[in-house]
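Lab notebook: predicted structure, single chain.

Context: the supervisor wants predicted structures on file for every construct in the current expression panel, including those that have not yet been purified. This is the next one on the list. No modifications to the sequence; it matches the entry in the shared construct table.
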Amino acid sequence: MSFPFWEFFQGIYTLFQTEAAIAGARIFLIVLGFFLIYLAYKRVLEPLVMIPMGFGMIAVNAGVLMIEATRTGTLFVEPLAPPEKLMYFLQVDFLQPIYTFTFSNGLIACLIFMGVGAITDLDYLLAKPVMSLLLAVCAELGTIATLPIAIACGLLPEEAAAIAIVGGADGPMVLYGSIILAEHLFVPIAVVAYIYLSIIYAGYPYLIKLMIPKRLRGIEMDPFAMPKVSATEKFAFSVAACGILCLLFPVAAPLFVSFFVGVAIKEANILRFVEFLSQPLLYGATFFLGLTLGALLSAEVILNTKVLILMLLGMVALLLSGIGGLAGGLICYRLSNGKFNPLVGIAAVSCIPTTAKVAQKCAAEANSRAMILPYAMGPCVAGVITSAIITGIYVSAIGFVKW
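Prediction complete. Output recorded below exactly as produced.
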């Protein structure tokens, strides 16, 4: 079928020049992009990520044109550009430099981690290290259990490990792990992770109410009873932890140094650097992360038969991690003879500081005098460290076999 007039409007014209499945997927993604923007505008999803992601999805699926007589394409990004044609794409696709120089090598994850480090407070982790690490380990249930589940679903070990990392609820970790372990599934895994992480705030309270009785949710904890930790101790810990973890897990060294250098700059009170890392760098990297991920989500990507499996497994991973964190909270409640609020356990699913805020909000709903946020921040920070460790283990044990 020929549409001479519509050839002037390439986005519409190409809908009729491709397979029906591709055209339908493009329309679906355009509508989904509008929906994500709406939810972000209403603050149901994280605006900083979801608004640019929605715009990217709309633009890349609407802006398809005829590159050659029989080939369609866009002017956004070519994620799997062959080396011999990379210079061409760098000069043509406007997001190609960002993807090539920050996504394909994991730099975008490290930049975000520097910013996260600069806004992270180690007080509560160092004040209650045993409790924090115990809960963080429990909250990695999804990261660990999803691996064999994903393999049983037919995924290759490296693909299974990449989607399992979603259970750590740490976006930069998912980016870094998936680009190394399963580059061909990097886009759907990253998009699934960020959409799910955006709805944690709405979903985890239901899990909390299902698992934890109201009388336990309202347990009061004295925030002034926590030991004081000096800036010198926090600075020394960040330096020592970085060195030890890099020595044990070299493959995750870029993540460790990025996070802990941000923490060290904060504790050294170098204000100009702290402001740069925690504001322009963190917000800028997160904004371009959302925009580029949206632009990568083309119709061909979602028609991959593994995408539905990835969506289900990502949900399973976060659900299991939430269950593991709350189970750890119940263990601490028993060990403390009823003085510990088990909601602190959900904060160990390390979506800083979202899950800690979820814990505090649910506690306040049960008892307006319950202030558990200071305690919740300890396992929340510990969860970042345990997620990075597991990512390093997966990449070392599974990724190197692939290489």
